[in-house]
Design goal:
It contains 20 helices and 26 strands. With 665 residues, the protein is α+β, with helices and mostly antiparallel strands.
């Protein structure tokens, strides 16, 4: 019976560009989906832009547009980037959709009816300057479990602990940079703890890697806490029915977005609903797999299956978890030039297929991090793809073209060798199935080595010189082309574009189940280069370009004496007006009150602050800085801020009581 499989990848957030870390997950998922289809499964792949939440709302406000329009523009950009890297969805939707609203409300009502929702009054972080309750990820501080610095308010990227923002040590708002205050608010909670037994049963029956199981066991040992599933206005999302000013938390409606994307794909009417139920109904015989990063394992392996169980819906067949992406052994960084977006990579003229192959060569089924080593990247592409795989076809095609009018012979020179290659199909397929892509690539390249050694042994260039051995020559190069065809079939899930070009060259499709039938006595097309060498110089130039575009790094200079320092006049100033600067994405134009004197300062803080939340704020001004003429106007000073990059910038502010015009000393 044909397998019916529905596959999802984690939803990219609306307010961010697609970067190499996002691509790691999407490529991993796309490879698995392509393998399933190639091997005959009925496999559907859906995803969506994660549209809701406070960040989208604030970013839209900065851009002077609505959250809906801003999220849709991000969705279009996400689709463009993914398509450029050969990632093909059956549907790429949005969580801000009528289907998602209907499904979230349906699930919530069932949870309420079955007694899995309770109301509690809680204390929340509130930013008095911004005038709003802070989402978990708008509070940062030290992890209460391991002490790691600069962690989000919901989970720690260092140790994986989850917690409430109030549990952070030395918390601060990323909007104002100040410690938030605590205010009470009433919220809806999902009784996660009541599902512990069912979740343990699901965990044992589902397809989960050992590392993920071990992490879940740790969380079970700690005990499962009720989950806050609502947020206060202002918030971009779906309002909870009957609860004015309360919205569903993005982490409730985002996983439902998987279902909504598929529901949209199914179409309207009874037929659409029937197809949807065949996949998500409690008696579904379809398989459902979620591909995610290890940082969101808690949400997908505890919250999500528990919500589905509580609503009487089927649970995932498995959650496929990968590690983080590092570049040259370090976390991606704008200041180091290694925070590389999909657009950056393409602008450098690099082939997307090369990144797909490198990821595949590194990926396994576990939670281990993946390191993109630039020198290794260039060496592996040049050696494996160009020097081994494509080289097989290029070495043989010229003989087929010149000697036999682009026609393959009626027989193979060494059928036993061909059978050796065919015999690897099952094992390589198992590697794909288990997401052990690195093992699959090593097996394929070992066969490519074997093919090249065999061609060297047969010496077709010598056979071509002997008129009496032309039949043997044709059999040899026919064998070489067929070995190439088998290998391209095996690697097709990883290299869809190069595989498509290989199909055009062979004038034959690549079919997983038909590799045991060699291509004989058929005409092929004139060979065209399928892949070119990659330059390490190009990769280094990409990093240097990114580093140049990033915020200038702090440069440490020689110590100065007190007299030199006192020449700098620091004063308290009040922001009376803040506005974006047309044509400058990073700049805000600030109008300051400086003890009765007004002045204009241009500040590169647009990536961290919405103009509306700055009005009335007091800052520290370098008052005697020489005015600087810019194409947007004259900047009459500088406001002090700390941080790195565009979004992690924090304005320095005086304590309460300081008035505009006061000297800072």
């Amino acid at each position: 019976m044909t397998r019916k499989i529905l596959v999802t990848a984690a939803l990219p957030y609306a307010s961010g560009q697609i970067h190499l870390g996002n691509l790691l997950e999407q490529v991993q998922t796309d490879i698995w989906v392509r393998y399933q289809r190639l091997s005959g499964a009925d496999c559907t792949f859906v995803c969506a832009t994660d549209a809701h939440g406070t960040p989208t709302m604030l970013k839209a406000r900065e851009e002077g547009t609505s959250p809906e329009e801003y999220a849709e523009s991000c969705r279009a950009a996400h689709v463009r980037d993914f398509e450029s890297f050969g990632i093909r969805f059956d549907n790429f939707y949005t969580t801000h959709s009528p289907e998602n609203r209907e499904l979230v409300e349906r699930i919530y009502s069932r949870l309420v009816e079955r007694g899995f929702i309770r109301t509690r009054t809680i204390q929340q972080a509130y930013d008095e300057e911004a005038g709003m309750f802070l989402p978990d990820r708008y509070v940062r501080g030290e992890c209460p479990s391991c002490g790691a610095e600069d962690q989000y308010g919901d989970s720690c990227s260092a140790c994986g602990a989850t917690y409430a923002p109030s549990e952070l040590v030395n918390p601060r708002s990323i909007l104002s940079g100040r410690p938030p205050v605590t205010r009470e608010s009433e919220h809806k909670f999902f009784k996660l703890g009541e599902f512990e037994s069912l979740l343990k049963t699901w965990m044992q029956a589902s397809n989960l890697d050992r590392g993920a199981r071990n992490k879940l066991a740790e969380w079970f040992k700690e005990g499962l806490k009720d989950w806050d599933i609502t947020r206060d206005e202002p918030y971009f999302g779906f309002e909870v029915p009957g609860e004015k000013g309360k919205y569903f938390y993005v982490w409730l409606d985002a996983p439902v977005g998987y279902m909504a994307s598929f529901r949209n794909l199914c179409g309207s009417g009874e037929d659409g609903e029937s197809r949807f139920e065949r996949y998500f109904g409690p008696d579904s015989d379809a398989e459902l797999y979620h591909f995610i990063g290890k940082d969101i394992l808690y949400f997908h392996a505890l919250f999500w299956p528990a919500v589905l169980l509580g609503a009487g819906m089927r649970t995932p067949s498995g959650v496929c978890v990968h590690g983080f992406l590092t570049v040259d052994g370090q976390k991606m960084s704008k200041s180091r030039g290694t925070f590389i977006t999909a657009a950056d990579y393409l602008a450098a003229g690099l082939d997307p297929e090369y990144l797909r192959y490198y990821f595949a060569a590194k990926l396994g089924p576990g939670l281990d991090d993946i390191d993109l080593q630039l020198e290794d990247f260039a060496a592996r592409i040049n050696s494996d793809l160009v020097g081994k795989l494509v080289n097989i076809a290029s070495r043989c095609a010229s003989f087929v073209q010149r000697g036999f009018d682009n026609r393959l012979g009626p027989r193979l020179h060494d059928p036993a060798l061909y059978e050796e290659f065919v015999a690897q199909r099952e094992q390589i397929g198992e590697h794909y199935e288990s997401r052990s892509y690195g093992k699959a690539m090593r097996a394929i390249m070992a066969l490519a080595d074997r093919a090249n050694v065999w061609i060297n042994e047969q010496k077709p260039w010598e056979l071509a010189k002997d008129p009496d051995r032309q039949d043997e020559l044709q059999a040899v190069v026919t064998q070489g082309i067929n070995l190439f065809r088998v290998l391209m079939t095996y690697i097709a899930p990883v290299l869809p574009d190069i595989s498509s070009k290989a199909e055009a060259f062979l004038r034959s499709g690549l079919n997983w189940k038909e590799v045991d039938e060699p291509l004989l006595d058929e005409s092929i097309a004139k060979f065209k280069p399928l892949a070119g060498r990659i330059s390490l110089k190009t990769l280094k130039a990409l990093v240097e370009t990114n580093r140049g575009q990033a915020a200038a790094e702090v440069k440490h200079s020689e110590p100065i004496d007190i007299d030199e320092f006192l020449r700098t006049e620091l004063r308290v100033a009040k922001i009376v007006k803040a506005e974006r600067v047309a044509g400058a994405n990073r700049l805000l134009r600030l109008t300051l009150e400086d003890g009765g004197k007004g002045r204009t300062v241009f500040a590169g803080i647009a990536g961290a602050y919405a103009p509306s939340i700055l009005v009335g704020r007091k800052v520290v001004l370098v008052a005697n800085l020489k005015p600087r003429k810019m194409r947007f106007g004259v900047s009459e000073g500088m406001v002090l801020a700390a941080g790195e990059g565009e979004s992690r910038v924090f304005l320095l502010s005086p304590d309460e009581g300081a008035e505009p015009g006061m000297r800072v000393r």
